[in-house]
Amino acid sequence: MQALTNRVKVVERKPMSLWERLYIPAILKGMAITFSHIFKKKPTINYPEKKRPFSPVFRGLQILNRDEEGRENCTACGLCAVACPAEAITMEAAERAPGEEHLYREEKYAAKYEINMLRCIFCGLCEEACPKDAIYLSETFTPADYQRKQFIYNKTDLLIPHPQEDPEAYKKALGNRAKNQTVN
Amino acid sequence: MLLVIDWAMILEKFVLITVVVMASLGIAMYTTFAERKVAAILQDRRGPNRAGPFGLLQPLADGLKLFFKEEIIPNFSSKSLFILGPGLAMLTAIMTSAVIPWGDKVHFFNRDISLQIADINIGILYVFGVVSLGVYGIMIGSWASNNKFSLLGGLRAASQIISYELAMGISLIALLMVTGTLSLKEMVLQQQQGGWGGLLSWNVLKQPLGFFIFIICSFAECNRTPFDLPEAENELIGGYHTEYSSMKLGFYLFAEYINMFISSVIMATLFFGGYDMPFVNEANLSPNIAALVGIIALMAKVVFFIFVFMWVRWTIPRFRYDQLMHLGWRILIPLALFNMLVTGGLILYFNK
What ipTM does the predicted assembly reach? Predict the structure, then answer.
């Protein structure tokens, strides 16, 4: 039969020669191969001590953003919850009372905002849907836990630290992911 | 008085036995660690490195885990035999160490203490006798489990060990014809004196084929890959220790590693000069230093052989059962017989 490609390898099925039937040379060859692996570089990374850098498009844990005065961006419009294919996001809206202007940027805010991290598929559609840059995906991932309850993240888990009260933690949580803060 | 009890001698032997047993247990423990580490390194992995520095406490953690596991004795098992099995395996594994010369002698409290528990003149025959008993531990345990997979594993172990013991024995006969003695101590003394720092008188140079047969047979006797058919996981679940749990399982696993250690010691003693350090004249050193040098030399050889055991295990796949029997009966035994005849012929020719 004519070969279609030049990659064909014909298997030889002739009986083994005496040298091959001794097996010992083949075994020694195999042992030399395994021995050479002692000196090979190990691909494993010692995880908790050493971390592999994430790719720049890695989509991790969600963060609820604040503007530079420390006011929450989220207006509880619900677009993220609608966009979410896994239906992981729930929220309750509330109206901003007089005197709360330093807490919420606009007249409406999310009184309750929960993401179920067991449902979340980290697709990033919430980030794309958000018109206020209130939610974005960070470079960390959800830590393991012993209880399912702990995986329902509420506002205290998700909100970014206050930029004026705790600027260092804010900087750290912000990373280099969030879009320009001053955009309305 | 015909029967004077030498209390000092009894005490000395007691201490020696304790030290040797404890040392073999400790070495077997760390052999399990070495096995996992060597396996990892040969497969480009890192191996256990979480418990303690470099994972050195891993064997302790494994042992503790085995102790804390639930002890299950199946209802349908034969209870006394079920308990006897692992005990016997462990006992025979440790008993072999009695005749091995661990070093020449040390000088303490104005006494010369021989570093050999019993220098009996049939040393190597004793080793063979006890090693053959080792199969009872496996057979009794597997039969008492009342489980067909266990029984199959036990049967395989028994037939395999008996088959390979023949070739091993015949290969040893050739060695005994060369050395002319059965005492292990005597053999080491013979190998100490010779050209090129004593290296030329090592028995491996006189009996290369015999050593080759011996090492293959000791792989088979220790149930190590490529001869680990008694515990072939993918065919027999766990083989003869399927029904065992907790420390009884630990005893079986431990006995395997002690066997490995002991057979490494025996190979080193028979073929590689035992406690003889090449290029060092032990007679020039003070006896205690000489004994220390001897023990270090023996342990270095043993570590090398244990590494070879593991190296082979992580290289060669398991034999099929008929291949195993074919190798044992139709290749190794004729080869050993041939070796014996050639050795005998050469001895007759040169002694003429």
Answer: 0.74
